[in-house]
Design a protein that fits this description.
This protein is mostly helical. Helix content is about 75%, strand content about 0%.
Length: about 80
């Protein structure tokens, strides 16, 4: 893997851990943590960030293994 892919993979993996911790805490103690609609909206946004982190970590892992190639490394256009 190139250095950039390695760094990005670690960043997205850290995002998965941090966002997953927030989601786990909210689900585990939802009576106390999800009282208002703003709390639920915040957890929904954190879940979206978790999904993004998981997807990007998967894409970067596949790139590192050579199973997925970008047509232009600076863009998100896949072959």
């Amino acid at each position: 893997m190139t250095t950039l892919l390695t760094i990005l993979l670690y960043i997205y993996a850290a995002g998965m851990v941090l966002n997953g911790t927030v989601i786990f805490a909210a689900v585990f103690d939802r009576k106390r943590l999800l009282k208002t609609s703003m709390d639920r909206l915040t957890v929904a946004l954190v879940f979206m960030c978790f999904t993004w982190s998981a997807g990007r970590a998967l894409v970067h892992s596949l790139q590192g293994l050579g199973l997925l190639a970008l047509t232009n490394p600076g863009s998100a256009a896949f072959r």
